Amino acid sequence: MKYTAYRTYRFVRELGARLEEAQKRPDRGDISITTVIIWVASVTGALVIAGTIAVIVAKYNGKLNGI
User: Fold this and answer.
1) What is the secondary structure of 24-54 as a DSSP string?
2) DSSP state of 67
3) pLDDT for 9-58, tens place per residue?
4) pTM
5) How many whole angstroms separate alpha carbon 36 and alpha carbon 24?
6) Rounded to an integer, what distance in angstroms lies between the CA atom of residue 11 and that of residue 15?
7) Are 57 and 64 spatial neighbours (Cβ–Cβ below 8 Å)?
8) Distance CA 57, CA 60 (A)
């Protein structure tokens, strides 16, 4: 407890310095190629699954009336 005020002061100064540095170098928002590949694969997979379900429902539409 002896150095609490000093530690708090040092913490606040370091935090301020980090915030100031972050404002000088803002994140550009670049998306990596891996992220784009994952998103494209996810959307493609979802469309394939939805298309498969639509084909099955269209094919067996008359037989599914009793369910």
Assistant:
1) HS----PPPHHHHHHHHHHHHHHHHHHHHHH
2) -
3) 888 888 888 878 877 776 666 778 888 999 999 999 999 999 999 999 88
4) 0.49
5) 28
6) 6
7) yes
8) 5
- Residue 1 in this model has a pLDDT that exceeds 60: no
Does pLDDT of 66 surpass 70? no
**Per DSSP, which regions of the chain are E strands?**
none
Which whole-number Å values give the CA distances from 17 to 5, 8, 14, 52, in the listed order?
18, 14, 5, 55
Q: How many CA atoms lie within 13 A of 66 on its CB side?
A: 2
Tokens of 3: 């150095």
